[in-house]
Specification:
Distance between the termini: 24 Å
CATH superfamily: Hotdog Thioesterase
CATH class: Alpha Beta
Strand content: 35-45%
Helix content: 10-25%
Structural class: alpha+beta
Order of helices and strands: HHEEHEEEE
Number of helices: 3
């Protein structure tokens, strides 16, 4: 389903000088039905009380889901754009790394839904997110 020509190296290179790069997000795996990345919990991603910022988790989730959706359609004909994101923050983080993986829930002709699970280094759930995207024709 995800374009097999897409690699983590291509994604990391194309993310330079963007929010993805600024937050230290690094793509780690591209599979047929998933994309994974890691993000540091450090001065760039913590809120003033020292905890992982929910917005940083949402950014990781949006990045993974949007990239996965984008590379699961024909670029010549379609583009995917976000409609809604929801994120439930279930475990605090103060340092280390979080690891996210996006997997499809629904791949339709006009919408896609991706679930993104973000875990800590002990594989415990930190955040679970759902991203809904519109699939629109290029003009």
């Amino acid at each position: 389903m995800i374009n097999p020509k897409i690699t983590k190296d291509i994604l990391n290179e194309s993310s330079k000088n963007s929010m993805v790069d600024h937050l230290g997000i690094v793509f780690t795996e591209v599979g047929e039905n998933h994309i994974s990345a890691k993000m540091p919990v450090d001065h760039r991603t913590r809120q003033p009380l020292g905890l992982l910022h929910g917005g940083a988790s949402a950014t990781l989730a949006e990045t993974l889901g949007s990239v996965a959706a984008t590379f699961s359609v024909d670029h010549e004909k379609y583009t995917c754009v976000g409609l809604e994101i929801n994120a439930n923050h279930v475990r605090k983080m103060t340092n280390g790394w979080v690891y996210g993986t996006a997997k499809p829930v629904h791949i339709g002709q006009s919408t896609q839904i991706w679930e993104i699970r973000i875990n800590n280094e002990s594989d415990e759930l930190v955040c679970i997110s759902r991203l809904t995207l519109a699939v629109i024709e290029n003009r």
